[in-house]
């Protein structure tokens, strides 16, 4: 049964229920729970960031799944919340800066989390919601899921979503999404590189759980090393990337889990991971 992840905003009481948390073995499922739009308001981003931080510190968590309730995965930032702050003395600048910084910190938290993160998408993922999908390590969606970066339609280019989308999708396809603001279907999203798999709605959670369980069965140390190295080498020139990953491989080979894994393979037995 899911338990509620709560948090407190400065000077305010608890805001319960924005993110639901449930566990199955080493797999932690975090569910955005503010339908119908699951907007990434300040409160929602703080709740999700807190839940991810807790997951990162919990050695029993091997894989994190980010899902959502309702018919939309996430409609992105809360435009009503943003518009309300235009009445501030600074026309909303301080609040806008807080929103963008918090969003960037959330996406970086996913990238830097020492555990794989899988997005489970059923419905529309738009703007910062699409950014959230693109920031996850893997993404699996239903055949009716849709995606877009529509900021250009309202005079607000999706510049921060662009960072994640342009690193997940092919360059020209990312520009197509950003310049047109048009919604793409699941098949197109897979062609663009935004998602890994498309499955019928009734099998979505089952397929995601299967992927998560397979990944969770691996050495947690190896997953941590590999995820960090993957994102770091992407930003390097080719020769530097090889120099860096060669050293990563050496350090990985010296780990107890690598010795155990190789020994188990040679002995034709299942490895027993210690995370060391």
Gap from first CA to last CA:
32 Å
Give the strand line-up of the largest sheet: 1-2-3-4-6-8-11
C-alpha Rg (nearest Å): 20 Å
CATH structural class of the largest domain = Alpha Beta
Compute the average pLDDT. Answer: 93
Helix content: 40-55%
Order of helices and strands: EEEHEEHHEEHEEHHEHEHHHH
Spatial shape: globular
Which class do the helix and strand fractions yield?
A: alpha/beta
The total beta strand count reads 11
The number of helical segments is 11
How many domains? The number is 2
CATH superfamily of the largest domain: 2-enoyl-CoA Hydratase, Chain A, domain 1
Q: What portion of the residues fall into strands of 2 or more residues? A: 15-25%
CATH architecture of the largest domain: Alpha-Beta Complex
- Low-pLDDT residue intervals, each spanning 5 or more residues: 6-14
GO molecular function: hydro-lyase activity
Protein name: Enoyl-CoA hydratase domain-containing protein 3, mitochondrial
Family: Belongs to the enoyl-CoA hydratase/isomerase family.
Pfam family, one: ECH_1
């Amino acid at each position: 049964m899911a338990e509620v992840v709560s948090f407190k905003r400065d000077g305010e009481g608890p805001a319960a229920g924005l993110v639901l948390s449930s566990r199955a073995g080493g797999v932690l499922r975090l569910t955005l729970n503010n339908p119908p739009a699951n907007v990434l308001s300040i409160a929602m981003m703080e709740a999700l960031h807190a839940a991810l931080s807790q997951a990162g510190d919990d050695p029993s968590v091997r894989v994190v799944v980010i899902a959502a309730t309702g018919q939309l995965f996430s409609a992105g930032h809360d435009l009503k919340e943003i518009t309300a702050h235009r009445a501030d003395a600074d026309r909303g600048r301080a609040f806008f800066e807080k929103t963008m910084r918090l969003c960037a910190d959330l996406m970086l938290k996913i990238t830097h989390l020492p555990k794989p993160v899988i997005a489970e998408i059923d419905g529309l993922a738009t703007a910062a919601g699409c950014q959230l999908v693109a920031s996850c390590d893997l993404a699996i969606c239903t055949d009716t899921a849709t995606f877009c970066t529509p900021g250009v339609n309202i005079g607000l280019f999706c510049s921060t979503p662009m960072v994640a989308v342009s690193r997940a999708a092919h360059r020209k396809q990312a520009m197509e999404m950003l310049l047109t603001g048009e919604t793409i279907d699941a098949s197109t999203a897979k062609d663009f590189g935004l998602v890994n798999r498309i499955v019928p709605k009734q099998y979505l959670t089952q397929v995601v759980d299967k992927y998560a369980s397979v990944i969770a069965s691996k050495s947690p140390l190896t997953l941590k090393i590999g995820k960090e190295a993957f994102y770091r080498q992407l930003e390097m020139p080719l020769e530097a990337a090889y120099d860096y990953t060669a050293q990563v491989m050496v350090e990985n080979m010296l780990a107890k889990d690598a010795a155990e894994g190789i020994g188990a393979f040679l002995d034709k037995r299942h490895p027993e991971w210690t995370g060391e």
